[in-house]
Amino acid sequence: MVPAGNPLLDNLRIEPTPGATTLVIFGASGDLTRRKLLPALHTLSRGQRLPARFAVVGIGRTELSDDDFRQQFRESLREHAEVTGDDDVVRSLEGRLSYICGDTGDPALYERLAERLKEIGGADGVLYYLAIPPGVYSTVVERLGAAGLAGTPGRGWRRVIVEKPFGTDLASARALNELLHRHFEEDQIFRIDHYLGKETVQNLLVLRFANGMFEPIWNRRYIDHVQITAAETVGVEGRAAYYEGAGALRDMVQNHLMQLLALVAMEPPVEFSAGTVRDRKMDALKAVQPVSLEGENADAVRAQYRAGWVERREVPGYRSEPGVGVESTTETYVALRLRLDNWRWAGVPFYLRTGKRLPKRTTEIAIQFHRPPLEIFRRVSPTPLMSNLLVINVQPDEGISMRFDAKIPGTRMQVAPVMMNFRYGTTFPGEVPEAYETLLLDAMLGDATLFARHDFVETSWALVTPVHEAWEEHGDTSIPGYEAGEWGPQEADSLIARDGRRWRTL
Ligand SMILES: NC(=O)c1ccc[n+]([C@@H]2O[C@H](COP(=O)([O-])OP(=O)(O)OC[C@H]3O[C@@H](n4cnc5c(N)ncnc54)[C@H](OP(=O)(O)O)[C@@H]3O)[C@@H](O)[C@H]2O)c1
Q: pTM for this structure?
């Protein structure tokens, strides 16, 4: 598939560059900085997307000199971006890095930061990135406020990117929002959900609202149900300390899957702006009804992986992972059936599932359409007829596919399902930006469209917190299991089978 009628694609790209910016990374010695942020900055720099006046101030407790931090930058490019050379881009960016060693609880750290910002050019834009454990967010926000580093000076700006997880339940998310709002205005706050930075997720908005053919059928009259799947093959990967306190519901559903649901379900915004797009997403989220947890007919299923085989490798069960208790009831799999009570979606279930140690790494949104009202080929075609399906592949093969029935060539009227595929990688040659590149740039530009707003985060927590609490109260150790390498537990199949449907085979 080629971009239709778009031969001057490169000339058509409008790529604004932010004004002078200093990026202050709290947690500069950590994993996220090494794996995602530094490589993203390098790619942005290579693409000339960073401002001419740009600096990075890294902050961590590990004692590093500026040179050590620059060395860490080079190592991170080697390990995570396959950049081994010593080109102008690496040298130029490296020269803009500096490091301050200190504890986030120490007021002196903020004095040193203020001095450093003044040296760099204090009146310009400053973007704080909280790449630190969530338990430290509040200290940094309070100290930035107390040191007068949160308020926007004359012609500059101050913004803060807050990493996930944003709270652990409704009460903690509310408290964090309140604290942030004491020191920053909402338009200064960028709550990251890296799913929103993914190309296909943004393309979902374009698919729906730049084309005239989908929107008229994007409703209960034509759509039977929606399935959103986020499947991982990995297990807890040494992150048990975090995951034990989170679980799949809070780690994946509250943020990523709810964002995807809102993008599928939202009404058309009147313009493409942060306020309007996020208003419409909020409307959709508000239509989601509380999850029923009533006995056999509960609309939520949790499970935990047991030992098994994934990608031809034998893997241990969750309870045997280092750092996980033998009686842990932390769920590594969740399936939900959600109901949206509004005119567009009444009667159309949204099925969500996510899990670790599933057979395949894939995230997709599948829109399943109704069957035609009269199936005139049913009797003549020996092959079963399928209903239309639109699949938005979020990762790893970003793209969109449509399934429809076609005649098999031959003298008989035989019908078979065929796919029409659009793949980003083949249609648009060149690199698809990493989510962190898009999001870092948007935050520097002050565009919050692809970030979570305070009300969205709280409403989403309001939906999942009762489910989590009910599971906690349940308190026994009999969480259902699924063998690693299988598509989740029997209970999840039953959840969707009750409606006469089944999960897609991926
Ligand atoms: N890693 C990922 O891929 C990923 C993905 C999504 C979200 N996140 C989120 O990103 C944040 C950081 O994660 P991470 O994986 O990078 O964690 P990490 O590897 O443990 O790094 C944490 C960083 O915070 C610093 N830090 C911790 N306490 C501090 C304090 N009191 N004062 C100053 N610095 C302090 C650490 O400094 P020292 O090591 O020098 O003490 C380190 O630089 C977390 O909120 C996490 O949930 C991470």
A: 0.94
